[in-house]
Design a protein that fits this description.
Layout: H1 4-17, H2 23-29, H3 41-54, H4 58-69, H5 76-94, E1 99-105, E2 108-115, E3 124-129, H6 136-139, H7 143-148, E4 152-156, H8 175-182, E5 188-196, H9 199-210, E6 214-220, H10 226-229, H11 231-234, H12 239-249, H13 256-260, H14 267-271, E7 277-282, H15 291-299, E8 303-308, H16 318-333, H17 337-362
Parallel strand pairs: 3-4, 3-5, 5-6, 6-7, 7-8
Antiparallel strand pairs: 1-2, 2-4
Helix pairs in contact: 3-4, 3-5, 4-5, 16-17
């Protein structure tokens, strides 16, 4: 059973990312994470999901079922929520040109949502992946937009997350090269980019060290080295993060430091990267040490960092992060033109409004 206070705290960023406008009201109803009775985490999210599903609002329903299974499946109730999430999203996806793909990679089953794959008109590939608590259905709605950016898209989960049956360990990064191999006939995998959020950003950076097909990495709040090597930092992590990592790794929490230590990227590995890396950092990140960005600045040759006064994942800057991520991918590809200029103008306007709102709040009445 998860700590309900932590669940509510960390759910906000994911609810906002999915534009679930009723999340505050639903969170106020929940008083336990025990089972699926009324007032429980799973029950309240699932009930809202069922109402939306009945009303035909399939994407919103999928988002609520996603939150019901958050942060990971720990029993029948969350498993049922995950299955209903995937089902609703699948029905919505079929109406929006998004297709499902199932692959056997590295001894496990990896299910993906895809857009723009074609054996006859292979486009550059953008891999989209969330972190340790977010499933592919949370990020796959962006796939239709990627077609307009001139890339094929694949939304995939980290090992151990959602429907991905691979284990999470020091070689988990190999999933990404294996995925490129599997898609070589349907996309231009020699021009692959990764929009990899949080912990999947670490996997993408490690994969890029060894696989030159990955031409750029965009990430938000990714651990790099200190997170994995500093046991004193790990001791201060939220319980939800520790429990989720232990679940993915198939390890006891007492063993987690030993499991994580080999995942730390070395300075030499980071210095070997000759690709653009775009990183969104949060100044009050309670999960990722501040030293990670300092290390990246010292080692990565082509680094673009944007920093927000926010907690992990910058939940108060979701829209800005989306725009900045899209622009970063276009810059990495060397793409300009009207679409780039339009997105850049939208980002400048959004930031100007945020600065104005901030200055207004600070002004004396």
């Amino acid at each position: 059973m998860n700590d309900l206070g932590e669940l509510k705290q960390f759910a906000v960023a994911h609810a906002r990312a999915q534009r679930l406008g009723d999340h505050a009201r639903l969170l106020s109803r929940m008083h336990t994470d025990d089972g699926d009775a009324a007032g429980s985490w799973v029950a309240e999210w699932s009930r809202a999901g069922a109402e939306l599903e009945k009303a035909g609002r399939l994407l919103d329903a999928a988002g609520h079922y996603n939150m019901a299974r958050f942060p990971f499946v720990d029993g029948p109730a969350r498993q049922a929520a995950l299955e209903r999430c995937v089902s609703c999203f699948g029905r919505w996806a079929g109406e929006h040109g998004i297709e499902q793909l199932e692959l056997e990679l590295g001894g496990g089953r990896v299910r993906c949502w895809t857009s723009g794959l074609s054996p006859t008109a292979r486009q550059p590939l953008l891999l989209v992946c969330g972190g340790i608590v977010s499933i592919k259905e949370q990020w796959a709605p962006a796939l239709p937009m990627l077609r307009r950016l001139g890339v094929a898209g694949v939304a995939v989960e980290m090992p151990g997350v959602g429907e991905n049956t691979l284990g999470y360990h020091e070689d988990s990064w190999r999933m990404l090269p294996d995925l490129l191999d599997a898609l070589a006939g349907q996309a231009d995998v020699e021009q692959a980019y990764a929009l990899a959020l949080s912990f999947s950003g670490h996997l993408a950076l490690r994969a890029a060290v060894s696989d030159r097909r990955i031409r750029g990495v965009v990430t938000v709040g990714a651990p790099v080295t200190e997170f994995f090597s500093d046991s004193s930092w790990q001791a201060r992590l939220p319980r939800l993060t520790v429990d989720t990592l232990a679940h993915l790794a198939g390890a006891k929490t007492a063993e987690l430091s030993r499991v994580l230590a080999p995942m730390a990227l070395t300075r030499a590995q980071l210095a070997s990267l000759d690709i653009p890396v775009a990183y969104t950092a949060s100044e009050r990140d309670e999960i990722i040490p501040a030293g990670e960005v300092r290390l990246l600045r010292e080692t990565v040759r082509n680094l673009d960092v944007v920093t927000h006064d926010d907690v992990h994942g910058s939940p108060r800057h979701v829209a800005e992060t989306r725009l900045w991520g899209a622009l970063s991918v276009l810059r990495m590809r060397g793409s300009g033109g009207p679409r780039y200029l339009l997105l850049a103008a939208a980002l400048r306007l959004m930031r100007a409004r945020a600065r104005f709102a901030s200055s207004t709040r600070r002004s004396p009445s």
